Amino acid sequence: MMDAINTAYTAYSDVNLWIKVQTDDDLALSDIPAILTSRLQYIVENWSSYRPMIEARIEFSFDPSRMLDELKAFDDFVQFSNTQQRSTLLAVSSSYLLSTYYTVVDQMLISDIPSSQSEQDTIDSEISRVLLFNKNKFLMLRKQLVDGRDAIADTIGATDTTYNSVYGRSPLPAVIKIDNGSSFLLYISAGHRRDRQRAR
Q1: What is the rounded average pLDDT for all residues in the chain?
Q2: Residues near 176 by Cβ (< 8 Å), separated by ≥ 6?
Q3: Distance (Å, whole) CA 6 – CA 86
Q4: Domain boundaries, the chain
Q5: What is the pTM of this model?
Q6: Is 62 helix (H, G, I), strand (E, B) or coil?
Q7: Which residues have a Cβ under 8 Å from the Cβ of 17 and sit 6 or more positions away?
């Protein structure tokens, strides 16, 4: 189930990158997750000076309350990484960072930090890749996004019976019980982290 969610975030990044390339918008690390891990050590080591810039962008986030929550969670990640740095930074994946701290990563502009030649090559390669997208690729991305949405809904037991009937889906039993709307928002804003158990 988490694989479907992680894949959906990656698909969302691809769609956003394609759109931003067409509109010449500033790119964020969420658009090029391939360089997330290479920049992670720099971000962790310079978080105290970089964080105010990210915090100032909360109002521009598509979900400010979620971003505030994920920013606090990223603070915890940075603190933990500073005590267990080598093992943590080597083990973490870009898909984990994207699905767990999406709103924070989405406000980390690529232009905030000078790119190394290797990173610039990756950025250029990713841009070239999405420019080759055709109809079939977009249909596949849509399916990945729908599968991810369904996986999240199944995880928290929020699937719609009519939707399931129309598309012949058999929803999985809820992993997390929702008592109210606030719990749902807390779960989503926590980036589906099982260990933090914010939704109950």
Answers
A1: 81
A2: 155, 156, 157, 187, 199, 200
A3: 24
A4: 2-189
A5: 0.74
A6: coil
A7: 27, 31, 32, 126, 127, 130
